[in-house]
């Protein structure tokens, strides 16, 4: 399976311009024989939505989006989703001109300069899903920082985890080095869940945020097999051996014994004892 990491900038609130950028990138990826193009979180809208007058959210099955997957490769793209009653920070997986799956970000950061609860509702489900190439799951940015979610995705059969992200540096004095944290986090996920991890981060400036890029792919042993440059737009193409997941999980079956009954009992106990 050949994946193209679309490490791009976007124009805040300018859906039409961002769709045009995505179309150009998808066509370039098609020329490089990619099977799938993965874009960053909110790549159709930008992040600082509080600065955008009006509501520019779109449906995940908007014809402008489904058309993107009509050029050959499948497409995973981030958007401010119009869910009718609510709005979501979502990633839509599109194939052959149709919507296959939508993941709605589950854990919305609401600290420092991240105020996602003002603009989005949290999603309510995590599902692995089948594509033409592999069984996959999506974790949008902060979702990947919740240890239970990669485990759940792997238990649902995901062979590839997509992590579209808007990770920035220098938002506050003394803030953590997000690039270092992501390096360690992605390594942990790939090794413990024994799957491919595809991390695609945005670049560019928006308000006080400076998005640093550094998109990469890790194999089921935790080795970084491809990495995009820091701070610059790029299209990085990498081949994945999906069968490597099965080989790795057979030689060291870390995730085979899930013990769902144990997990369910302990979660139910905590739900009784601690307010959700």
Automatic annotation (TrEMBL):
<dbReference type="InterPro" id="IPR003010">
    <property type="entry name" value="C-N_Hydrolase"/>
</dbReference>
<dbReference type="InterPro" id="IPR050345">
    <property type="entry name" value="Aliph_Amidase/BUP"/>
</dbReference>
<protein>
    <submittedName>
        <fullName>Amidohydrolase</fullName>
    </submittedName>
</protein>
<keyword id="KW-0378">Hydrolase</keyword>
<feature type="domain" description="CN hydrolase">
    <location>
        <begin position="1"/>
        <end position="242"/>
    </location>
</feature>
<dbReference type="Pfam" id="PF00795">
    <property type="entry name" value="CN_hydrolase"/>
</dbReference>
<dbReference type="InterPro" id="IPR036526">
    <property type="entry name" value="C-N_Hydrolase_sf"/>
</dbReference>
């Amino acid at each position: 399976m050949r994946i193209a990491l679309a490490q791009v900038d976007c124009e805040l609130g300018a859906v039409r311009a961002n769709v045009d950028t995505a179309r150009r990138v998808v066509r370039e990826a098609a020329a490089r024989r990619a099977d799938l193009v993965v874009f960053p979180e909110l790549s159709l809208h930008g992040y600082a939505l509080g600065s955008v007058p009006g509501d520019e959210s779109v449906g995940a099955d908007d014809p402008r989006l489904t058309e993107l997957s009509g050029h050959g490769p499948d497409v995973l793209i981030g958007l401010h989703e119009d869910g009718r009653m609510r709005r979501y920070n979502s990633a839509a997986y599109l194939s052959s001109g149709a919507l296959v799956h939508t993941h709605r970000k589950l854990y919305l950061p609401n600290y420092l300069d991240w105020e996602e609860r003002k603009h989005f509702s949290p999603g309510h489900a995590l599902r692995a899903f089948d594509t033409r190439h592999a069984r996959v799951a999506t974790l949008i940015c902060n979702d990947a920082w919740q240890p239970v979610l990669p485990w759940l995705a792997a238990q649902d059969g995901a062979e590839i985890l997509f992590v579209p992200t808007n990770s920035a540096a220098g938002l506050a004095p003394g803030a953590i080095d997000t690039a270092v944290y992501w390096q360690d986090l992605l390594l942990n996920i790939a090794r413990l869940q024994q799957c491919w991890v595809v991390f695609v981060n945005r670049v560019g400036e928006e308000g006080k945020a400076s998005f640093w890029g550094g998109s990469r792919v890790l194999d089921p042993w935790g080795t970084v097999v491809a990495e995009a440059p820091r701070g610059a737009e790029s299209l990085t193409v990498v081949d994945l051996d999906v069968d490597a997941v099965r080989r790795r999980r057979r030689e060291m079956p870390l995730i085979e014994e899930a013990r769902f009954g144990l997990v369910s009992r302990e979660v139910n106990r905590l739900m009784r004892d601690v307010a959700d």
